[in-house]
Design a protein that fits this description.
Blueprint: H1 10-37, H2 42-67, E1 70-72, H3 79-92, E2 98-102, E3 109-112, E4 120-124, H4 125-130, H5 133-149, H6 151-180, H7 187-229, H8 232-246, H9 251-257, H10 284-299
Parallel strand pairs: 2-4
Antiparallel strand pairs: 1-2, 3-4
Length: about 300
C-alpha cells in the first residue's frame, strides 16, 4: 500500500495476494483449456480474452459509474460533500479522488478506480438525505479506505475471470446451437458440452474467491475508516440507519442495484445464504461488533 495514514491491514494484503495468485492460476488453466480446444483459432482466443481484460481493467470504473447513473460534481455543485472529502483526504494524506453523486433513493456509496490517482467516490442522493454530517463522514472514510488499500483494483481484476468464463459459456452455447441443427457428432459435439461445463466451474470458483475477499475487505474498510476519524459510533450509526432504510426502498430499485453489491458500502439486497458463503458483505451484527470493539480500544488510556 502507498503511504497514507490509514492503518495498514496485513490480513487484507495477504488475502489480496492469495486471491490474485489463485485467480491467476485459474486463469492460466482456463486459457490452456481454451487454447487446446480451439487450437486452430488461438489468435482469436487471445484477442478476445485480451480485449476483455483491457476493457474490464481500464474501463470498469466508468462502466460502474455509468451503470449506477453517477455524475461527477464540482465543489460548487456539492460544497458540503467536497468539504468532507477534502478533510478526510488531508487527514489521511491521500490524493483526492473524483467525487460523484448518483440520483437514486437507494442509500449507498461506492468507490471505483484502478489506482489512487484514478479513483472515484460516489454517494447516492438517498444517502445524502438520510445521514447526519458525522455519519456521512464515516461512510466516506470507509470508501476512501478501499482506495488507500487498493482493494478496488484487486476486486476488478478478480472479477475479470468470471466475466470471461460467462462470455465463453454464452459463445460456446451459441455456436453449439448453430451446429446442433446439422447433426454434429464426435469431438466437436463433445466440446459443445465440455466448454460450458468448464466455464461454469471456473465462474463458480472465481465467484467464491471474490466473495471471500469482498467480505473481509468490508471489515477492513470499516476498521480503517473508524480509526481514521476516531468515531466508530458514527460509522455504526450510519450502518444501522442504512440497513434499516433498505426495507423501505422499492424492490425494483434494489434489484437494479444488486449486481453492484460487492462495491457498495452496504448490500442493496442481503438474503440469507448458507453460512453467508455467497454474501458480498459480512453481517450487520459482525460489523457493529467490530466497531464496538474499536470504540473500546480507542477509549482505553
Amino acid at each position: 500500500m502507498a503511504h497514507t495514514r490509514y492503518a495498514p491491514d496485513r490480513g487484507l494484503t495477504g488475502r489480496m495476494v492469495t486471491t490474485m495468485f489463485l485467480i491467476g492460476l485459474l486463469y492460466v488453466l482456463f486459457m490452456s483449456v481454451l487454447l487446446v480446444a480451439f487450437r486452430d483459432a488461438w489468435p482469436l482466443v487471445l484477442l478476445l480474452t485480451g480485449g476483455l481484460f483491457v476493457a474490464q481493467f481500464w474501463f470498469s470504473d466508468r462502466i460502474a459509474a455509468y451503470s449506477m447513473g453517477a455524475r461527477e460534481v464540482s465543489p460548487r455543485q456539492a460544497p458540503e460533500l467536497h468539504a468532507a472529502v477534502d478533510r478526510l483526504c488531508a487527514l489521511a494524506d491521500l490524493p483526492k479522488p473524483r467525487v460523484a453523486i448518483a440520483d437514486t433513493d437507494v442509500p449507498n456509496a461506492f468507490a471505483t478506480g484502478r489506482s489512487q490517482e484514478k479513483s472515484l467516490v460516489c454517494v447516492t442522493t438517498g444517502l445524502l438525505r438520510r445521514l447526519e454530517p458525522e455519519e456521512l463522514e464515516g461512510v466516506l472514510a470507509h470508501e476512501l479506505s478501499h482506495v488507500a488499500h487498493r482493494d478496488v483494483a484487486v476486486m476488478t481484476f478478480a472479477a475479470f475471470l468470471g466475466v470471461l468464463a460467462g462470455t465463453i459459456t454464452r459463445v460456446a452455447l451459441w455456436s453449439g446451437f448453430l451446429r446442433g441443427g446439422r447433426g454434429g457428432q464426435g469431438p466437436a459435439a463433445l466440446l459443445v458440452v465440455l466448454i460450458p461445463l468448464i466455464s461454469l466451474v471456473v465462474y463458480a470458483l472465481s465467484f467464491l474467491l471474490t466473495r471471500l475477499l469482498s467480505r473481509y475487505r468490508e471489515l477492513s474498510a470499516d476498521r480503517g475508516g473508524a480509526l481514521l476519524t476516531g468515531k466508530p459510533s458514527a460509522l455504526g450509526s450510519a450502518l444501522t440507519k442504512i440497513s434499516g432504510q433498505m426495507s423501505r426502498i422499492p424492490t425494483r430499485d434494489l434489484r437494479r442495484a444488486e449486481p453492484y453489491n460487492a462495491f457498495f458500502f452496504a448490500p442493496a439486497l442481503s438474503g440469507k445464504s448458507l453460512s453467508g458463503l455467497f454474501s458480498s458483505h459480512p453481517s450487520l451484527e459482525r460489523r457493529l461488533a467490530q466497531l464496538a470493539s474499536i470504540s473500546r480500544e480507542l477509549g482505553r488510556p
